[in-house]
Amino acid sequence: MTDTPTLRRGSLGTADIAFFVVSAAAPLTVMAGVAPLALLIGGIGAPAGYLAAGITLAVFAVGFTTMSRHVRNAGGFYAYITQGLGRPAGFGAALLALLGYLGMNIGVFGLLGSATSDTVEALTGHRIPWLLPALIGLAVIWYGGFRSIDFGAKLLGVLLLAETGILVLLAAAVLLKGGAHGLSLHSFAPGNVLTDGMPGVLAMAFAAFTGFESTVIYRREARDPDRTVPRATYLAVAFLGLFYAFVVWTVIQAYGDTEVVAAAAQDPGGLFFTAIDQYVGGWAADLMHVLIVTSILASLLAFHNATSRYGLALAEEGLLPRALGRIHPRHRSPYVSGLAQSLLTLLVVGVFAAAGADPYTQLLLWVNTPGMLALVALQLLAAVAVPCWFRRRPGHGEGALRTVAAPALAAVLLTGALWLVVDHIDLLTGASDTVNRVLILIVPAVFAVGVLYALRTRARRPGVYAAFGAEPAEAVGADVAAAEADAGAPAAATPGR
Predict the structure, then answer these.
(1) Which regions span the lipid bilayer (predicted)?
(2) What is the CATH number of the domain that holds 450?
(3) pTM for the full model?
């Protein structure tokens, strides 16, 4: 009898997982596409906003990664929330995770279509319909997800090095030439940081880190996950926070402290392209146009892989159809979950295209925004879940700084972050108040549906409910063996009611 295929264990190291996370954030796209708006809103103090967001998420990562050493379930946030806050909250978190990852993935195909059209027009003078590159990209991403995780990690490594390399080239050229009027650190002066526009910058900065928490989703495919997953999480957060702040600061130097905001106002979409054209050359500006497209493709592949693994985990839990839990016998990929995701994307993109919607202002922003809000809400719930989980396990052996103080501080900071994003949602969407209210209300509505579904499952499928979010059998066995070997150490517990 042939064994049931499983995900390819031991395939991913720290750098591989970090590539997935950083690629999902799409650094080049965030910098060239969003950072000019941050400069318009927050002035030259914008780099500090990215640092502040990075510090907040680093604090969150302390408790999150500490818990990851004890919770072996590969379901990501929903598993942590289930074990810390109970199954009803876990069901709600599971649906929020689906909303978050699907929203972040599907909406970006609108960006891929519009950015590719812009790139073709910039290089050739001719414009192509946005739907064509979006559909080609959909086929490419499906194939990338269908192949083994090793293939995806290698591909993302190449694409990520290319997109970060062009930004490093720009930064190095600016530094070597001393900027427009000499280099300064005025961006980090309190008077330039503590401005009325900084809350808006922070809202955009937190959105720029979306997807960093997906490290735990790859636990089953990681080498030595108790070490690899935390290291990849810290590496991704540190890199993104420092890199974003550094690149935005160098672009400020390229134009000068007093001129950069006016330049961003005059041509926000061209701010980075003009800078690299001036400091490096026209060929580099053309290359940056191309790498914007590959940056978006890398982000899509990273989110596609993460979403497919969420679908796999929820199918194994019984929350989604069991067919989504099938794994390809050769590539060891969750290929049915990936195919279902691609077909849903095709449907949504097709509906927006048939309705004549704008690929950027409507498909991207309207679909991405609830996804981003859902992921920030999940981070907040996970921060609350960490001390609750450790409090019920007094023999865990971890210090109070990691299990109580850091998660509590993270919960406070993430509450502020979520409020900033909601309060400044118009900066992210450019939509009417009515549309913004709908986009915001989708998130609590989906969570509420998950909680109600949990209650229904408890009544009608008690076996599925009881097993939801629990530790996998092999992990429980390992914990029991460790507990027997270490007298007095408690074995892993099941999630609460």
Answers:
(1) 17-42, 48-67, 88-108, 128-146, 158-180, 200-220, 232-252, 280-303, 335-357, 363-389, 401-422, 434-455
(2) 1.20.1740.10
(3) 0.84
